[in-house]
Amino acid sequence: MSTSIQVRRFEEEFARLRRRQRFQLFGYSLLFLGIFHVAAEFSQFTLERLVAGLPRIGEYIGKTLPEIRYVSLFSDVATWYYGILKWLQLLGDTLLIALMATLFGAAGGLLLCFPASRNLVGRYWIYFAFRRIAEIARCVPEVVYALVFVVAFGIGPFAGFLALMAHTTGALGKLFAEANENIEERQLDGVRAAGGSWLEVIRYAVLPQVLPNFTTYTLWRLELNIRSAAIVGFVGAGGIGQELYQAIGLNYYEDVSAIVLMIVVTITMIDLLCERIRHRIIGRESLQWA
Amino acid sequence: MGLSAASVDSAQLASWRERFPRAFGRTPRERAILLACGLGLAAFVVFCLVRFDASPARIVNGMERFGRIAGALFPPTPGDAFWDLTKAMLESVGMAFLGTLIAAVIAVPLGFLGARNVLPIRLLRFPIRRSFDFLRGVDALVWALVYVRAVGLGPLAGVLAIATTDVGIFAKLFAEAIENVDRKQVEGVRAAGGNAIKTVRFGILPQVLPIMLSNVLYMFESNTRSATILGIIGAGGIGFALSDRIRAHRWDEVGFIIIMIIVVVALIDFFSHLLRTRVIRAGGTRPLVLAEETAAPAAPEATDKRR
Question: In a 10 Å sphere around its CB, with 0-12 CB exposed, 13-18 middle and 19+ buried, how is residue B21 labelled?
């Protein structure tokens, strides 16, 4: 019978496939190794340097850890966190920077997003210009904005607020515009047919559809902004980051671990809170859609 | 035809107004709540501005100075350091590449340890998952500061900083991907007599590899962004040149560097996106990315867990 022929044909086909796969794997590995080599070359990364560096990292982190004994637990923790009042205030500043930047950034994004949506503007160049503005504003990292604003507005949390706001405006403007482009067109036609102006179309046909999305995007941005607000302090833009930068620079080892721990705990708590709110919003929405 | 105004007498209108107050606009109560919210928000903004020390004079002066700076960014020129800047930019990309790669390699075994279906012992899994959270919670820039102190200035500190944060991110994402694998294939390998290693190799790995790869590519994009700023605190890459030019107020060169960063980041995004869609299509699985942009909670129907 032809079964043996079929089996042989199958075996041949399978072998050919395997050969091709092996060949591809080999090619990709070669390409990957090449890229790896170039990357290591450019970033001066060698195994010796890594091996030499690793123990020193352990040493440094060991130095930042406080000495806490069981017998004098409270006084040790109190010594470790001697600056808690000042740090809490600075942490509060960091949160205010993030909140304000998210508030103003969301407002900016809201203004930017409607002319940046392809389905809401007739003229292509208006859409193109506003979309590119949002994208470029979003491309520049917060820290770079902070560096520039510190020069323009002086050291302090105000520069940090402006830096985060600029980045948030771009990021949310783009996300909002993408949400606008995914809406149901029929409602737009409805408001237009009833004689609504452009603003009325936005208010009565677009906003009701996208508002839940806008809220979740904004909350998610708030989480990111709290992280960034702690960072922009490194270049002089206020908040707890500035204090951490000084503590590291002046080798106040135990302060470093105390402040980092405070930041991490705060960020984790706020992440959990925002996640819960977001899920609640999404949950209610998906119930309505069902 | 419809309902003309003349056919409704004022008594009828009044009775409707009483029965359906919200059809005629906001009720006084709602208006009061809105007003209170608005006032509260305004008070918060004013409080913050006072706390930030943002006097009108400072804002005006700052705007003026910022306007001058923005004007001085153009026309952007590389100065006489075009090749140095290009090299620094490539150094940033190299840092991102190595950092992502090292993190991915370390995170694969950690991800398995953090997955409920691989390590069912809750008492062991909990501290592992929390340590991922800690690595993730500390920003790469903070790690970079620490590493610059420990291993000295230069790209090595940047590579390690990126790797440290990413180990936390990858381990969490990988663990979640592993927890979401289809049990049937795993059971199939077990039923055919495969041991633990073979179960992982033939039951789990083929399912999670495309997800892992697309996550790694995604983080590479995001890390290129971070690698451009790590230099500001001395951890190698283009950031050092940037902060140097800003401190020296050489704004035309600052403009050039910023444009360079935008172009390179856009290029990397483009290629990585291309690769990612190929990887995903080949794997036939939706990616499970939780970092910037893609982590943006998608439209309600997309995040619906019941699908």
Answer: middle
